[in-house]
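Possible regression after last week's pipeline update?

I re-ran a chain I had predicted before the update to compare outputs. Posting the input and the new output here so someone can diff against the archived version. Not blocking, just want to make sure nothing changed silently.
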Amino acid sequence: LAMTGQHLFSARVPRHASTEGVRVWDLRHPLRAVKRLTGHVSQVSALAADGADAVSGDRAGKLRAWSQARS
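New output (post-update):
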């Protein structure tokens, strides 16, 4: 988990290999994810966030940078 201001980032626990990724939650309305960030090829094992940006890493060693301002 990683949190910035009004957003919470969580690693997606997949049922299928094609659903790896990160979910973004709006803490003002936390009952459902507002965004799904996909692109990892294996399970996400690390998350960090700062402001509108986040970085995630998976077990295959792939890092992804995310920006709420751009996405």
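Follow-up from reviewer: compared with the archived run. Strands lie at 2-4, 7-11, 21-26, 33-38, 44-50, 53-58, 63-67. Marking as no regression found.
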